[in-house]
Amino acid sequence: MKSKPLSWYKKKLWRVFAKWIKIRDKHQCFTCGKKCFGADCHGGHFKKASCCGLLLYFHEDNVHCQCARCNLWMDGMQYEYGVRLGKKKVAELDALERISKKTIWSRADYEKKIEFYEKKYAELISPKTP
Questions:
Q1: Torsions phi, psi of 118, nearest 5?
Q2: Helix (H, G, I), strand (E, B), or coil: what is residue 28?
Q3: How far apart are CA 119 and CA 94, in angstroms?
Q4: Per the domain annotation, does 65 fall within a domain?
Q5: In which domain, by residue range, is 32 found?
Q6: Averaged over 103-121, what is the pLDDT?
Q7: Does a structural domain hold residue 52?
Q8: Residue 21 lies in a domain
Q9: Is the pLDDT score of 102 beyond 70?
Q10: How many CB atoms are located within 10 Å of the residue 104 CB?
Q11: How many whole angstroms separate alpha carbon 36 and alpha carbon 66?
């Protein structure tokens, strides 16, 4: 059986990770506070996904729910995003960015993360029993 390309794993991980982020943030835009659902609801990065490396691409402190307006049309609302994160988190993400550009993930790394976020997502959406 032919194994899937790493890009397949990255896309699958992004789907489950972003789904979990939206639930974690209760579908509320991190930068403007608006409730968003469906195609209007995104997983927005503070450190841009196109240049941050894999460690930050899937980092819980670097990704928050954002509406399409803030994430796409307003280019992520970087200033407001940074203010909301706070100076300490921004400094931590800057340090992680330097490391993350050197990180290479294997299929096993992706599979572990996919399983991890599928479990976290299921925990958030399942009813709590006393």
A1: -65, -40
A2: strand
A3: 28
A4: yes
A5: 15-107
A6: 89
A7: yes
A8: yes
A9: no
A10: 8
A11: 8
| pLDDT tens, residue by residue, 20-76 | 999 999 999 999 999 999 999 999 999 887 777 788 899 999 999 999 999 999 999
DSSP state of 48: -
How far is residue 94's CA from residue 99's CA, in Å, rounded to a whole number? Answer: 9
Classify each residue of 72-87 as buried b or exposed e, where b means 16 or more C-beta atoms within 10 Å of its C-beta.
eeeebbeeebbeebee
Q: How many residues would you count in the chain?
A: 130
- What are the structure tokens assigned to 26, written together? 């209760």
3-state secondary structure of 45: strand
The span from the CA of 105 to the CA of 100, in Å, is: 10
The three-point CA angle 57-93-122 to 5° equals 50
Residue 25 lies in a domain: yes
Six-digit token pair at 70? Answer: 């803030």
Question: What's the total number of domains in the chain?
Answer: 1
Q: Please, which pLDDT band fits residue 13 given cuts at 50, 70 and 90?
A: very high
- Within 8 A by CB and 6+ apart from 67, the residues are 29, 32, 34, 36, 40, 41, 42
